[in-house]
Amino acid sequence: MARILMIEDNAANMKLAVFLLEQAGHEAIQTRDAEEGIRIAREQRPDLILMDIHLPGMDGLAATRLLKGNFATRDIKVVALTASAMAGDEEKIKAAGCDGYIAKPLRYQEFLKMVGEMTAGHEPKQGN
Ligand code: MN
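Above: inputs. Below: predicted complex with manganese (II) ion.
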């Protein structure tokens, strides 16, 4: 099982993602706020962060830059969640330091495939 921090301000997206993560045997930590997400990342060292790009206050790209610029959190994988499919966004997401991205609305197979790839080595242990 992996410990996954989900930073998402949309309640429906949060609910769906947490459901999918828990069904897959992962532990989900939830916050709707980038600043709180950064604090949780430093304190709890999740295996993966799922980062909404559009957040109230600090946006997900700025938060990712901070995480990737800090020695304590730079090794944590960050996957962006983005509703926008505009040209140039992939470059912006990569430039901010994200390890990948998932387009919204979430499609469960694509979502779980990306999470699986990004948490390789944290597969559920037998008997857990
Ligand atoms: Mn949002």
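Helices lie at 11-23, 34-44, 60-68, 89-95, 108-118.
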